[in-house]
Amino acid sequence: MYTPPKTHRTAAVAAALILNASVALAQAPQPPPPEATDPVKLEIMKGFPPPPDKIVRLSSVLRFPNGRWAFHHMRELGPTAQVWRGDEKPSVLRDMPQEMDSLKFEDDKGAGISLADWQRTTYTDGLLVLHKGAVVLQRYHAGMRAQQPHSLWSMSKSFTGLLTTMLIKDGLIDPNALVTKYLPELKDSAWADATVQQTLDMTTGVAYAENFRDPSSGIFQYLHAAGLLPAPPTHSGPRTIPDLLVTLKKEGEHGAAFKYKSVDTEVLGWLLQRVTGKSYSALLSERLWAPMGAQDDAYVWVDPIGTQISSVGFSATLRDLGRLGETMRMAGRFNGRQIIGESVIGEIRKGADIEKFKSSGQTMRYGYSYHNQWWIPHDRDGTFEMKGLNGQHMHINPKAELVIIKLSSHPAGDTSVTHNVDRRAFAAIAAALSAR
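Now predict its structure.
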């Protein structure tokens, strides 16, 4: 059984204690057994039409366990834009399967757990592990199939940050310029005196919060505007993303501290489309999906007027995410070509100010920073990550030559709930593969 080094165990245990205390204070409910929420066994959306009590609508996606079906069926519930894979043959992903489900490691509570049980207890829908460019483990659960794009939720932010960084290195965007240089529509908003870089690092001061336990929180205004959560008839707030962004006001000082905000990413999505004259989905296709030789089209959610949602709207298949992860691990080179400039990857990996990150209160991610919409752990392996609601992960470990994609439908939206056990699983996989 893999056991983390003592120094890392001590830090992990301390972080786990803090996390457990915070969860207890919030009185988070005990999640139901994963096997009792399998959408296939529950026959969710089965039938023509399904029985009334088995129907999932857009308004009920976030009502567990509906997400276990909906997260890999989002385009059946609302409008989306295609991310074209291009007209070339898909790039080859070598398959070199290894027996890893029985791999044991010490979880965040000090108990032994297998990789199979970790997948089950964290409500995994799909898991892909690449080592030295080859697929060594691929698993699908909860009725998800290989050809089905899965919602990435806030992993979408990292794609937006990646595209923005590429445009910066191309000289099309000045990171030190005010956002309003490109988006004058925001001259009376919170971003009137914010720079592009502050928006990329989420150190803007905006009167906006993401608290799923508070119905008055800004996140619900955002979901209504994005069309991801139908607004009640009495809703008088903005019903599109552009209309929402212009209403948000400044709170605090820009550049002082990290605060996680989906609206920052929507500003970036608007900005990169304005600068290029191309849609978000077209940029994803032209800059990433087509050149890396994606096997499947992906898609992006759109709001009621067709605004493409760049913060939480992207859905893609597991193996194509593996292709992107491998491109990032290899400093931008994949499919026989340099798809992303090495300087782009280097910029993302350098991270940001750890002290500014601390103010966010994310104690379980002690030592992290957030830079250009990517999570940077600043660990000895140089890992860097994408993260999304309900347990979406891309973990890239250059030292171990490892990429892990984990797509999930966990009942807890906040990825901090499983952060410690997930990181231990990633470390155990890295250690096991490095020893083989």
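The first helix runs from residue 6 to 25.
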